[in-house]
Amino acid sequence: MFHTRYTLHRQALQHKIGYIIDVKIKDALVLADGKLSPDCKISDAIDDMLEYTKLTDHIFDTILNQSDSEELKKARDILKDIVNRRLPKFVGEARLNEEILEEKMTKFKDQPKASMIKVQKKLKNHWEKIINNSNQSLNAEDFDIYVLDMGFGEVGNEPIGNVHFYSKNDLKTAFKLEKYQVSSLKPKRFHEYLVRVYYNKTDVSYQKVQQKAEESFHEWCKKNEFIDSGKAEETVRERSQNYQPSLGKIFNDPIYGQIELDPPLIKIIDTPEFQRLRHIKQLGGAYLVYPGATHTRFEHSLGMAYLAGRMINILKEKQEDLGIDEKDVLCVQIAALCYNLGHGPFSHLYERFYCDALKREALLEMTEVEVDRANEGIRQKQEKVKIGRLHHS
C-alpha cells in the first residue's frame, strides 16, 4: 500500500511536467492574491467559510479571462503559457544524499522546511558556479532549481508504526504490530529528497542549449556534496553521449498506456483551441450522477488519434496495393485528433438540447410573426370592406 502511494507520486502526482505546472499555477495564484476580488483576498478566504466555499479550480479560468485587469496581467500571462504549453523545460533530476543532508540540516538547527530552503539555496549557488565556470555559454539565471520530497508517509518514520490493527478475537481494541511481527522484506529508508533543474525560458531556444544544459547538470551532480550522483552521472552521461532530439511526445493515456504522437500532432495539441477540450466533458452532465464520468474531449481525442494511427498502419502493412504512405497516416491521425474541436460546452448536450431549444424558440417567434402578419392582412381587408360599404351607402 505504501509502495503504491510512492509509485503514484513518482509517476503521476509529482511527474516532472505536472510538478512544474503546479509551481506555475501557484505563482499565478500568489500574483493574483488581493487583485481578483476587492472584497476578499484568496489567502484570506480560508478564514471566511462563505468565501472559501466559492474557491474551486475555476479560479484558473477566472484569472485567465480577466483580460481588462492590468493588475492581473502577470498572473494571466503565466496561465496563458500553461494553456499554450509554453512551459519550463526539464533538464535533469538527482537524488540527494540522505546522510549528508541530515548532517547539514542538523547543523542548521532550524525547522525542517527552513533547513530545506537553505539547502536549496546552497544547491542554487553551486549550480551558478558550475555554469559560470563552464565553457557552455549558458546563463545561470535561465535555470530554476527545486527540491521535492516523496516517500511512504511521514518523513523519517516507518509508516507501519502509525497503523493500528484489530484482532478478530477483539474487534474493539486497537494495537500496533511488534517489530518481530513486521516482515523484514522492507526498504532501509522510507523517504527521499529529489532535486530537479528546469530551463525557465519558454521560447524554443532550449533545443539549442539542451545538450549543453544536460552536460552541465552531469558536472554539477558529480561535484555537489549534497547529491547522490552515482546513478545521475551514469544516466546523464549516457544521454549526453547518445543525444538525439526527441521525434515525438509520450502521453500516459488512462486506457492505452504510453502512446507516442508525432510533432505535427503535438503542435495542434499545444494550441489554445485544442487545450480548450480539457474543459469540455465527454458525457455532459453524467458526472453529476456517476462520479467517475469526468473524462473530457481532450483525452478522448488523444485516444482517437492513437487508434486511427494503429488502424491506418495495419492497413498500410496488410494491403500494400493501397499505396498508403506516411503522409496518409499523418492526415488520418490529424483528422481523428481534430474532429472533436467543434464541440460546445458539455459536448452533445449543447447541440441536442441547447441549440435545439434555440431553434424551437426561433421557430415559435417566426410563427408568431407570421400570425401577426396574417392578422394584420385580415384587419386591413376588413378595413377596406368597411370603407367600401360606407362609400356605397
Automatic annotation (TrEMBL):
Pfam families from the UniProt entry: HD
GO BP term (any one): dGTP catabolic process
GO cellular component terms listed in the entry, alphabetical order: nucleus
Annotated HD domain residues: 297-348
Single GO MF annotation: dGTPase activity
Family: Belongs to the SAMHD1 family.
Name of the protein described by the UniProt record: HD domain-containing protein
Species per Swiss-Prot/TrEMBL record: Sinocyclocheilus rhinocerous
